[in-house]
Design goal:
By secondary structure, the chain is an all-beta fold. Helices cover about 0% and strands about 60% of the residues. Strand 1 and strand 2 form a beta hairpin. The chain starts with 9 loop residues before the first strand and ends with a strand.
Amino acid sequence: MKHKDDNEDLSVIARGPFDIYYEGAAKAVSASNAVGQFDILPGHADFFSVLDPGEITVTTSNKPVTFNANNGIITVRDNEVMLFINI
């Protein structure tokens, strides 16, 4: 696991079977699972979860990108976040 660096970004790709919802750098990713709302920040521990239906927010250096997911999974490893949604 890497340590958080304020200048470090996440590399995020959020895709579905027919769409790419977001691909690029991000400061944070927010979503929810059976336990509740969670945030992924740079330096986050390796993580895998099934997503609950709801809004996902990707915080970029410009403006937040939001989209809805009916279902999906998220994986995090070494500041790389992959979301597979609406599958």
